[in-house]
Amino acid sequence: MTEQNGFHSKSNGDHKDEYLFNKNLLQSVFKQYALKDSKLIDNIYDNKYLLRPLAITDYEHSFIELLRQLTDCGTITCDDYRKRFHQMKQCSNTYYVLVIEDINLDREIVGTATLVCERKFIRQLGIRGRIEDVVVHDRCRGQQLGKLMIDLLTQFARDKCDCYKISLECKDHLVGFYQQFGYNHEDKQNFLCQRFKNLSTDQCETIE
User: Fold this and answer.
1) Span 39-59, average pLDDT
2) Quick check: helix, strand or coil at residue 45?
3) What pTM did the predictor assign?
4) In sequence order, what are the residues at sequence separation of 6 or more whose Cβ sits closer than 8 angstroms to the Cβ of residue 125?
5) What is the mean pLDDT of the chain?
6) N or C: which terminus of the chain has fewer CB atoms within 10 Å of its end residue's CB?
7) What's the CA gap between 156 and 207, in Å, rounded?
8) Do residues 37 and 151 make contact, with C-beta atoms less than 8 angstroms apart?
9) How many CB atoms lie within 10 A of CB 105?
10) pLDDT beyond 70 at 3
11) Interior/surface letters 33-70, b for 16+ CB within 10 angstroms, e for the rest
12) How far is it, in rounded angstroms, from Cα 107 to Cα 58?
């Protein structure tokens, strides 16, 4: 474990392009969150979980397998993963994938959530944020890791990305969970969807 500017990481010869976005952008958000939850010290939570951006090497650390606990992912090779990673990275200031790494279990990814920032012409060239793909490994639920990620990304969207609003979609039984972070139904607003591919899945959305 090495430390640079208060940000802990595993020392494995990583180069500057390892992360999907600049990890230093998270520092002030971590510091503010730590004021209300002393379990977060720098980017280490509860002495066993490391929070950081998604890395190019995370295919080898079970990132896709974690997402399979949320929904169907299909067949994804390491090359497929790296290609999509670089496509997302080239869209600067758009994709912010936060992951939680288990320090004590070979760097396995046990939690992730994504913030997508959409640039608009409306609202004085405003930026709208969306929270997506939130999942915590089934063996790690009940430790407030989902709450941690949502709280951090919501603050990040407001303070670092200057979003004029942020939204998310969830199952009915999770509405109460997200309302504790200030997410609510907007009056006279409906979410409609049209699917072009019917990907069957038996997974159930569960966050704790």
Assistant:
1) 97
2) strand
3) 0.88
4) 119
5) 90
6) N
7) 20
8) no
9) 14
10) no
11) beeeeeebebbbbeebbbbbbbbbbbbebbbbebbeeb
12) 9
175 phi and psi angles, rounded to 5 deg: -60, -45
| List of long-range contacts for 27-32, beta carbons under 8 Å, 24+ apart | 28/159, 28/160, 29/152, 29/155, 29/156, 29/159, 29/160, 30/152, 32/155
To 10 degrees, what angle do helices 145-159 and 27-34 make? 120
pLDDT (average), residues 73-79: 96
| Residue at token pair 């510091």 | 31
Q: pLDDT class for 200, splitting at 50, 70, 90?
A: low
Measured in degrees and rounded to the nearest 5, phi and psi for residue 129 equal -105, 150
**171 token code pair:** 């199952």
Residue with tokens 């072009």: 196
| Start-to-end Cα distance in the chain | 27
pLDDT of residue 13 exceeding 50, the answer is no
**Six token digits for residue 17:** 């392009």
Question: What does the alpha-carbon distance between residue 102 and residue 89 come to, in Å, rounded to a whole number?
Answer: 24
Tokens 């790690």, located at residue? 140
Q: Which residue has the tokens 């407030």?
A: 144
Collapsing DSSP to helix, strand or coil, 3 comes out as strand
Radius of gyration of the chain (CA): 17
Beta strands in 103-181 (DSSP E): 109-119, 127-136, 165-168
Helix (H), strand (E) at residue 179: helix 175-179
